[in-house]
Amino acid sequence: MGGPGDEPGERLADRVYGQLLAFIVEENLGQGDRLPSEHELSRLTGVSRPIVREALTRLQADGLIESRRGAGSFVRQRPAEHQIQHLLPAPVRARLDTFDVRIAVEPAAARLAALHRTDAELQAIKTATAALIAALAAGEPAGEHDLTFHRAIAQASHNPMFLLTLETLDAHVEGLIVPSLALIEADERAKRVELEHVAVTEAIERGEAELAETAMRLHLMRARSRAVAMRW
Fold first, then answer.
1. Model confidence over 152-193: pLDDT tens digits?
2. pTM higher than 0.70, yes or no?
3. Distance of CA 133 to the CA centre of its chain
4. Max intra-chain CA distance, the chain
5. Which has the closest alpha carbon to 114: 156, 166, 161?
6. 169 SS3 class
7. For residue 173, which phi and psi values (nearest 5 degrees)?
8. For the chain, where are the E strands, in sequence order?
9. DSSP per-residue string spanning 133-166
């Protein structure tokens, strides 16, 4: 499976619908509480605003939220527990499990990339980093650029098993790079994500293998913590 943009719109809307149901429950939102704006949800879920709008429309049709002109979407009634039990626990557990594998594997890929990358491979890593930074700055979905970044490093390791591992994980987990729904201090978190990627990129560019390995491990550990905390 490719990045979020490769999924059919209906499947994406189903996924966002489930994320929003879980968000309402996990954040303990009650009747009258406001949901994040379409723009915020688009950036933080990594999908387009029309997909977010479709998911919100489904929630409204199910009587769970209501839209108020000029004010946004508000909880009309909390979903019953049985409505979300089948939606997120397994996928979330699977995504967290992938971090255990990635933390064990990707730092070694970064180390080898620092030692063996070509100029073209370095440029691919830098291009992915720049695209991710630009998306974060513009408040746009960045998940696809993030996955491209990690794939480029795996490619630059010159060991095909690293890229195969990433591709296998991505094929078995719906969305290897998953932005979450929490919004508190979103700008500050985005800056931390940017700095983490820049640290890895710069270490690879300088050929500092140990630093590249450490920077990648730190990035993945922090990414896992953000996922556990439902933060991006």
1. 999 999 999 999 999 998 877 655 554 443 333 456 778 889
2. no
3. 14
4. 56
5. 156
6. helix
7. -125, 130
8. 65-68, 72-75
9. HHHHHHT---HHHHHHHHHHHHHHTT-HHHHHHH
